[in-house]
Design brief:
By secondary structure, the chain is of the alpha/beta class. It contains 12 helices and 20 strands. A 5-stranded parallel β-sheet has the order 2-1-3-4-5, with helices on both faces. A 5-stranded mixed β-barrel has the order 16-17-18-20-19. A 3-stranded parallel β-sheet has the order 6-9-12. Its EC number is 2.8.4.4.
Amino acid sequence: MQANPPDLRPDLARARIPADHPGDRRDGQPTIGMVSLGCPKALVDSERILTRLRAEGYAISPDYAGADAVIVNTCGFLDSAKAESLEAIGEALQENGRVIVTGCLGAEPEYITGAHPKVLAVTGPHQYESVLDAVHLAVPPAPDPFIDLLPASGVSLTPRHYSYLKISEGCNHKCKFCIIPDMRGRLVSRPAHAVMREAEKLVAAGVRELLVISQDTSAYGVDRKFAEERGHRAHITDLARDLGSLGAWVRLHYVYPYPHVRDLIPLMADGLVLPYLDIPFQHAHPDVLKRMARPAVAAKTLDEIAAWRAICPEITLRSTFIVGYPGETEAEFQTLLDWLDEAQLDRVGAFQYENVKGARANDLPDHVAPEVKQDRFERFMQKAQAISQAKLAAKVGHRIEVIVDSVDDEGATCRTRADAPEIDGNLFIDEGFQQLAPGDIVTVTVDEAGEYDLWGRL
């Protein structure tokens, strides 16, 4: 079983299914497989489902043959992602035959059953109880409380040394190209004390890096009116400060550039939070942003970026952009290129606009021709690549801190503070790495730089 390739969208994460060793399974133990597609937020949903199933006595299979049934957690953000999800469902049906579908595409059950009428059940995103009910019906639980034990940290689909930490669900924005609010609802923030309790357990279990995710991290706590409960306030600045006190790396994703984001930058300068912001700018021309119905259209983002860098010069900025949005003219696209030249973002991804069923952008006039979108995508990525290469070249000769992700016979694959797992670059060590282990945080000297990756030595 496998997940979508990470190049389908800039924020995709490859799921790692933790296999229960066959010798550890007891006779008659029901076994479930999981295919997890889509973004890190979906990955967290998969982890929660598997944790609940493990608590009920189910074993987890890493392959189709060893599973009594398979759950496919789908992505439905883009038409290409929907196609990937349907393909994964079809593969699971062919290889196993007993398939339960959940996730974002599950919000369109007729779309799924129309293509695959033999699926056992279809549930929508974060409908954990419905997924469990479907599993119980397909493969009845048979727990043994004296044998079936669940790790205190739950089931993780990421390596042990880092973990995604979802702080809210849903989104209050109404961007015309996006249907996430329709699928996942309005913003619902978790209580800050609950987030902290989960983070504390993760760190106690050996997690060295916490990746904070949501649909809109900057808006965390708005729906709770930034209430304080049990000593923790539901505001992103307070939450970041509290998480930073745990001693792990804290990385912030999906941060909209609201004015209060500048309050996070001193925390980065002080070392409490990684100097890294993942901000979905999407475009730079005001007319395109208006047609997108993006929030904070009037924000002077270049001024904000300059202010952030003045406070924390080492800050890394990552973003994603849409090229070929309906009505985008060559002049508007050129504005985006000029903006990128001035902004000098460190990590940049882009994807070509696609219609998504139910999105208001579908009805906009003057859709851009596919060959024009492809040309603009290539020109955009060429510029972004040149900026990345120059920024990485400037790191040669510097000593930096890295976290080790994996070690094999050829070397160690690491990440700097400027690199999130799966979506950014790596730093490779090919000499003297034999004593390193995943999760180690070490200091290296950068010897060589490429377009996206670095090479260094201890």
